[in-house]
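Subject: for your reference before the review

Hello V.,

The reviewers asked for a structural picture of the protein, and I figured it would be easier to keep everything in one thread rather than splitting it across files. Below is the amino acid sequence we used in the manuscript, unchanged from the supplementary table.
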Amino acid sequence: MTSILLIDDHPLATNGIGAWLNGTGRFTISGTAKNLAEASALVEQLENPPDIIILDISMGTEDGLDFIPMLADICAKRDAPMPGILVCSMYEDLFLVQRALDSGARAYVSKSAESGEILTAIDALLEGGDYVNPRYRITTPQHTWSLTPRENKIVACIKQNMNNKQIAKRLNIAIRTVENHLSHIYLKTGLASREDLLKL
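And here is what came back from the structure prediction:
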């Protein structure tokens, strides 16, 4: 059976999705993790990496997408194939969808999606493809600015309705540093406020 690892800081989400996937008779749950340290330790302990990882973006003070390069390192050291990564998030913002795909996820499904859509995404990954609901597909670039990876992370945090203090905690930087980055972002984009960034 297809093995799946669930990474989400909400136990109700992992328990609910896990029970439902088990109930299909097609999948086995390799484990669940509520933070990135747990997820890394779990993958290291497994005899073989899972076939699929279902990952949330917003995990308290952590960015779930940071797990993707961690996973790539683990797989490279073990000479193991990279699992298919399905991001399952409450956010339906195109910027966040694109960021997930740019980070290495191959599928993106909203937590409000029908269960059939999750199965469609999983099947696409198992066949070596990808899946994004057509309403999320970005046919033209959302912007042409040269934001740094850190600046992109800050914009992503803003789109998750985080304030400067929360952003500083997630990125482990000073609030003043967040403010400096925001100044650079506004200068590069020509935008003037957080409200403008939310509309990207």
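For the response letter, the relevant points are probably these. The domain at 2-132 is CATH 3.40.50.2300 (Rossmann fold). The chain has nine helices and eight strands.

Happy to draft the paragraph if you're swamped.

O.
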